Amino acid sequence: MRVNDIFLSLQGEGHFTGTPAVFLRLSGCNLQCPFCDTKHQNGQERSEEEIAQRIAAYKPRHVVITGGEPALFLTTTLINRLHDAGKFVAVETNGTHSLPDNIDWITLSPKFAFVAHGAEVVLPRCDELKAIFTSTDTFSVNAPRYLAIAATHRYVQPCDTGNACQNHKTTAEAVAWCIAHPEWSLSLQTHKLLGIQ
To answer: How many CB atoms neighbour CB 196 within 10 A?
Structure first.
């Protein structure tokens, strides 16, 4: 399995914001989103045993597997190894590929608003839907597709453009969307606000 990084931090987004967690970032993705800030092509091959042992050495119980796109590589056996180490396993996915059925928490972030082809969601449900928000006009077009996905929690997350003025405008529109559509909650990338990994 090709690993980009394993590190300790706080979950910066969504339902578990602020939770200490071990992050397993896998390399490779089937999509090329214009806003992606991860150099997920970089990485080193690691065995599942080596990955599990390294994660088990960290104190937090919460593990976040992200990418790239974890569904391209993730196995039931790795999840079992992490469970055997007493870990709670959360996965962040674009939803275009199926996942092992022994994952504890699925965060689904569909990308069909940003990628022309190959971004259709195949997962039937998720614990947490995280929809990237760029503008009210764009989001309103795709909102029915987001709402068609079965999710326990729904989050609107303003897209980080790298431009402070644009980010402020986008966030203000996302806040207004949530107030007008209370089935959505706001998710901010607090790790970026805090300057942590």
So the answer is: 11
Cα 44 from chain centre = 21
Bridge partners (DSSP) of residue 145 are: none
Residue given tokens 């994660």 in the structure block: 55
CA distances from 191 to 10, 76, 134 (A): 7, 29, 19
Are the C-beta atoms of residues 7 and 191 closer than 8 Å to each other? no
- With a cut of 60, say whether residue 34 has pLDDT above it: no
pLDDT tens-digit profile of 89-113?
999 999 999 999 999 999 999 987 7
In the chain, the percentage of residues whose pLDDT exceeds 90 is 77
- Residue 176, number of CB atoms within 10 A of its CB: 11
Cα separations in angstroms, 160 against 16, 44, 110, 127, 171: 20, 28, 16, 23, 9
Total-model pTM: 0.91
| 3-state class (DSSP) for residue 121 | coil
Bridge partners (DSSP) listed for residue 192: none
Beta bridge partners of 174: none
Distance CA 179, CA 66 (A): 29
Angstrom distance (rounded) from CA 79 to CA 191? 25
Q: Hey, how many other C-beta atoms are within 10 angstroms of the C-beta on 6?
A: 17
* Kind of pairing between the strands at 2-10 and 20-26: antiparallel
**Residues belonging to the active site:** 23, 29, 33, 36-38, 92, 191
117: tokens are 């082809």
